[in-house]
Amino acid sequence: MTALSGHPVEDMLKRRGFEVQLRNPREYLFFPDATEEVEDLLYGMLRRYSFRIFIRDVIKKKESFSAGDLTRYTGQELAGEYLGFLMRLKLIEENGPGSYRLKAREIFSFGDTLEWLVARIFEREFASPALWGLRLKGAEAGGDYDCIASVEGRLVYVETKSSPPKNIEEAEVSAFLKRAEALKPYGAIFLEDTMLRMKDKIVPFFEGLVEGREVKRVESETFSIDDKVFITNSGRDIAANLGLCVRRMLSPEGFWDIKGP
To answer: Residue 62 maps to which CATH number?
Structure first.
């Protein structure tokens, strides 16, 4: 066995026979060289769904954009405020009068940044060490895992999706379940970064793939299979929904059945 790394999650994976070949890659974040202070500011802003949607459009139009180009889900005044914030952090630069471009132009999607955010939520909100963007050697069904955390000494795996439900196919849900089966975590969460309903398309995929096991609604658009596999969106608050899954995972329904007098 290779020497332990000192990071709780990586060491837990090594004890299970997995070799961590990649973890926490920064090159495809939209802030690859940010200082800790800048990351703290970005963490607070990325907790906002409107800012995440805004950043997706910035990445999509990374070569040239103005405030008016970024109002699909955000008003022009708020888009201007968000642009000013990115300018202060030196993450975008002027590209002509009223026009800007993203400095990290090699980035192609919001996916890595969402993985980073989820790992930070586990660390900061749940006091749970986490790694993101992992590649594991020795894992069947592909070794790519978006986020793995240690919650009270138990592995929790989170698959993150930044695409809307209409762009998710059954094969992606099947791959998530196969990765979870290979890892055998204490619990697994399929997180769709959307305000849209999970019941319309995503939940039916799970129902078809786990035939004979009930997919139960936990609350709003959060669902579970045996309080071990969870399906949720980021409606209301992404951290609150992840917290709901973690609480249910740690205290499953029916665990304490003794009735009082």
So the answer is: 1.10.10
